[in-house]
Design goal:
702 residues, alpha/beta, TIM Barrel, Immunoglobulin-like, five-stranded mixed beta sheet, 20 helices
Length: 702
């Protein structure tokens, strides 16, 4: 980590440089496309860069599984490695671009990732950009990503991360720019804020992006209460704040909070938003002309922005990272890490024994479905361009090369329409799919979504829903296809490729196996093939709840957490948060707490023995949940407070130690205040949420 004294030196250098700038030059640096100031040796720089799951929108790069798939790994070490690879590839591409004078959008080092908003409702189109529905998991994965991206040598960071979208933002997409999310104090401090607080305090993230919407009437990119009093004064954030793209203009155009763009620009900057993303400097020039803002206030914002540039070595002393060559981009080592990530993300939801498949007993495989041979379904959104990629048929052909197994393929239906060819009749590929299913020894049916129908407003093209899902149903004719294929009666594995929960009740009831593949990245097809044939035991866990129906949920626009996510939903679900099956079995010994009674302010520490009792090697995700033994109104059912990913050979055991720090033992009351409540608590440790097989113990806080 860069020492504080070095950062303070950069702040001093920033102030010295700003003092030499004219007012007009200063204003020019407050927008994301910042022009060069040649007389001061300041190069042009574009702050807008994306790296959600690999360097995005900037040409060839390693494309990892989508963020929601990375969350399914429950692997912070892997997440840190991925962040470091992203930073390396970002530097490699930046260095090449700089040598050629290319300072365009997506060619810089300030990455507007990760998205740590809470995936509170499965209908939100951008949920697959997040790490799921749980604040603890989101905070842990977000910090790991940040530490990787912000790898430093004691003087400079390799790249800079940015957590978004501050602070309560998770749909609806259709009205996001002027929406007011009404959030209780309890939900705000218990659910929506914790991941941001952790990424700021522990992750030391360089930047924070404000959201489009307002929260309880406070416009996120124009609120001093949020951006200064909360973010800087309370959470201790010292980096820079950037608006979401066009969010400053939205203060006037959508929120109608001020009558002019100049007043919107002034309000945003005075509130603590330092950089106007995708904005024009003219509005701020007019604000200065009208004396709505002072030069001193602009200087404050610029000091933060220029400190970031000094930390990266864009200004001042050159960085050793300037020597990273382009050949470090998209390397074989990075592709291998990508394969590992895809393998760890795959989440087995049902298996009647059909998996793993036996090569010696199969002559023909039918691969069916609109997501089977889809590159779009591999990549998710905010993605780069892979130099090579493997769809599911590609992966099978590569893995089975040299065998006598034949692969038959049919799309079966369109992803969301009623036909694949415009001049054909409805269900034009259905008969072909049923036909090849009847010829096969095993059927792989590939259902789901892609980022064209769940995503961001303006990017996804699902009409009136603006990227959000109207419900949890598989779109188009996919359920009809599933029913017809299952009726054939051949052994069938459902490979669902989506970034969010969908209704898989038919698959659960009638198929032989169900695998949630997420958007598995460029190496996804290889990973899926290797998993199907038992090259490794699946170990992904659900970072979201798979509900049975959207009818079980509150209104999508309601930001109350009551009745949402595993912490507050009391009904029957299809697959619970934290769930995932394996090809082997694990058992847990009794929980051994270091102390059964602790003082308020002390951590809770315990140990448990984990054993692989099955017949194959595998990884387990041990999960610790905490429940306060109280009838307090609004108390969560239980909450994830620790996890460990462990590889064990068949028959092998290990001892795991869990430490729950005092901060994670705090309870948020209805007034939003966090307190450590005295009383008894139950700790659960197992491979999923608490059930009859989970080990449990109690301890008391006095």
């Amino acid at each position: 980590m860069i020492p504080n004294e070095t950062i303070e030196q950069y702040r001093s250098q920033a102030r010295e440089l700003i003092a030499q700038m004219t007012l007009d030059e200063k204003i020019s640096q407050t927008v994301s496309a910042s022009p060069a100031i040649e007389r001061l040796g300041i190069p042009a720089y574009n702050w807008w860069n994306e790296a959600l799951h690999g360097v995005a929108r900037a040409g060839t790069a390693t494309v990892f599984p989508q963020a929601i798939g990375l969350a399914a790994t429950f692997d912070t070490d892997l997440m840190r490695q991925i962040g470091d690879v992203i930073a390396t590839e970002g530097r490699a591409k930046y260095n090449l671009s700089q040598s050629l004078g290319d300072c365009d959008t997506y060619k810089g080092l300030t990455f507007w990732s990760p998205n740590i908003n809470i995936f509170r409702d499965p209908r939100w189109g951008r949920g697959h950009e997040t790490y799921g529905e749980d604040p603890y998991l989101t905070g842990e994965m977000g910090c790991a990503y940040i530490r990787g991206v912000q790898t430093d040598n004691g003087k400079h960071r390799k790249a800079a991360a940015c957590v978004k979208h501050f602070v309560a933002h998770s749909g609806p997409e259709s009205c996001r720019q002027g929406y007011n999310a009404e959030v209780s104090d309890k939900d705000f401090y218990e659910t929506y804020l914790p991941a941001f607080a952790k990424c700021i305090r522990e992750g030391q993230v360089e930047a924070v992006m404000g959201a489009y919407n307002a929260v309880n009437g406070e416009i996120c990119c124009g609120s001093r209460k949020l951006l200064t009093e909360l973010l800087r004064d309370k959470l201790g954030f010292r980096g820079h704040v950037v608006s979401d793209c066009g969010a400053v203009a939205a203060i006037e155009a959508y929120h109608k909070a001020v009558p002019t763009k100049a007043e919107a620009a002034a309000l945003s900057l005075k509130s603590g938003c330092d950089l106007n993303s995708a904005g024009e400097a003219d509005a701020l020039r007019e604000a200065v002309k009208q004396q709505l803002i002072t030069e001193t206030e602009i200087d404050v914002a610029l000091e933060r922005l220029f400190t970031t540039r000094f930390c990266l070595g864009i200004l001042g002393e050159k960085s050793e990272y300037d020597a990273i060559p382009y050949t470090e981009n998209d390397s074989s080592a990075h592709r291998q890490l990508n394969l590992t990530a895809a393998e760890k993300s795959l989440t087995l939801l049902k298996n009647n024994g059909i998996l793993p498949l036996n090569k010696d007993k199969i002559k023909t495989i039918a691969v069916i479905g609109p997501n089977a041979d889809s590159v779009t379904a591999l990549l998710g959104n905010y993605h780069g361009t892979p130099s090579e990629f493997y769809t599911i048929p590609d992966g099978l052909r590569t893995y089975l090369q040299g065998s006598n197994i034949r692969i038959l393929y049919a799309s079966g239906c369109h992803l969301y329409g009623d036909r694949t060819e415009p001049c054909a009749g409805a269900d034009d590929r259905m008969a072909e799919a049923v036909g090849i299913a009847s010829l096969a020894d095993v059927v792989l049916l590939c259902t789901g979504l892609d980022a064209t129908i769940e995503g961001e407003q303006g990017d996804a093209f699902n009409g009136d829903d603006s990227g959000d899902k109207p419900d949890l149903s598989l779109p188009g004719r996919q359920n009809i296809l599933m029913q017809k294929v299952l009726t054939v009666g051949k052994p069938t594995v459902i490979l669902n490729v989506s970034g969010s929960a969908v209704d898989l009740r038919m698959a659960q009831e009638q198929a032989d196996a169900v695998v949630q593949c997420w958007y598995p990245g460029a190496m996804g097809g290889i990973a899926i093939a290797r998993m199907l044939f038992g090259e490794f035991s699946p170990s992904g866990r659900l970072p979201v709840t798979f509900y049975r129906s959207a009818a079980d949920l509150p209104d999508f626009c309601d930001y109350s957490m009551q009745g949402r996510t595993y912490r507050f939903f009391d009904g029957e679900v299809l697959y619970p948060f934290g769930f995932g099956l394996s090809y082997t079995n694990f058992s847990y010994g009794e929980i051994q707490p270091e102390q059964s009674t602790i003082q308020a302010g002390e951590p809770f520490v315990c140990r448990v023995t984990l054993t692989n009792t099955g017949h194959c090697d595998g990884e387990e995700v041990a999960q610790l949940y905490l429940k306060e033994n109280t009838d307090r109104d609004g108390a969560p059912r239980w909450q994830l407070k620790g996890f460990r990913r462990v590889f064990l050979k068949a028959g092998e055991s290990c001892e795991l130690m869990f430490t729950v720090p005092p901060e994670e033992l705090k309870t948020v009351g209805n007034d939003g205040a966090s307190r450590i409540l005295k009383g008894t608590y139950t700790v659960f440790i197992g491979g999923s949420q608490p059930d009859e097989t989970t080990q449990r113990t109690e301890f008391e806080i006095i």
